Amino acid sequence: MSEECFLAFTKSAENTHSEGIEHKFGELRSQCLSVEAYNKIFHHYNFTIEEKHEICDVWTSKVYFAEVKQVSGLKSYLCCMLEPNDQGHCHGCKNQDMYELKHPSRGGYEEGDASIHWPFMDDPDYDHTY
Q1: In a domain, 86, yes or no
Q2: pTM, two decimal places
């Protein structure tokens, strides 16, 4: 899992000016896998990245959100730093009771379908007993 997070971070960092900054993966804090159809899967992560500027020896830690989405077999990556007040909404994570996983308030990620509940049932009133 940490490899997917760091890959998402690396792809995102390619678009920013991070020259002179060394990065390494910190820790995976939480994750949630959502399958909405056989050809639509997305995985949300909260993790930390440690960074050190070349002019000092101090490592600092920042919390990030990443999404790895697979649609019709093609993967796409999204990654952004989380702000302390981020409270973005995600049906995919909420429907699995993953309330500790934070999402960016600005959106841009797959929010899931409110009608799909774990384990992949459309009707939340479905009787699970046999």
Answers
A1: yes
A2: 0.84
